[in-house]
Design brief:
mainly alpha, elongated, 5 helices, single chain, two-stranded antiparallel sheet
């Protein structure tokens, strides 16, 4: 059952604004890193999805589209451009010739590896701020959900305060 929220405070808006800022900060970093590799951000995301959805032979185009929250034909266009650059290849399934899978090439693996290394380093820097901001926002939301609870009574880490 969803309860009617109490009055929103300046802290509620501030916490949500800060979370949105931290997410956007990381996304901006990611977009700039992709551009430095000569990729559009969605192309980087497609390379990452093809690797992250590790399946024998690679994910299907439908799986990639679903993972990127785009339409099938948009995924096909992205794959076309990455294939022209030699970063991905299409592989037909031996079991069902209608099924096409997407696989990174050696060049695609190299580009994705470089991007992943710098993203991991950036997460070491900006990640703690993001986690802290998210923790504060969740504490506020949990305090709102527990009848009679005050914000200071609700802790985001139940291990610390059982």
């Amino acid at each position: 059952m969803v309860r009617e929220p109490g009055p929103l405070t300046a802290k509620d808006y501030s916490a949500l604004g800060e979370l949105r800022y931290q997410i956007r900060y990381f996304l901006h970093f990611s977009e700039m890193a992709a551009h430095q590799e000569g990729l559009e951000p969605q192309q980087h995301q497609l390379l990452l999805a093809a690797r992250a959805l590790a399946q024998p032979g690679g994910p299907t185009i439908r799986q990639v589209a679903d993972h990127l929250l785009i339409r099938h034909h948009s995924a096909v266009g992205l794959i076309d451009r990455l294939e022209q650059r030699g970063l991905v290849e299409r592989v037909r399934s031996m079991a069902d010739r209608r099924e096409v899978r997407v696989r990174l090439t050696v060049a695609g693996e190299a580009v994705l590896r470089r991007l992943t290394v710098i993203h991991r380093a950036e997460l070491r820097n900006s990640g703690p701020r993001l986690v802290d901001t998210l923790g504060r926002l969740l504490e506020r939301a949990q305090a709102e959900e527990v009848p009679g609870a005050k914000e200071e009574d609700v802790c985001a880490d139940p291990e610390r305060h059982p």
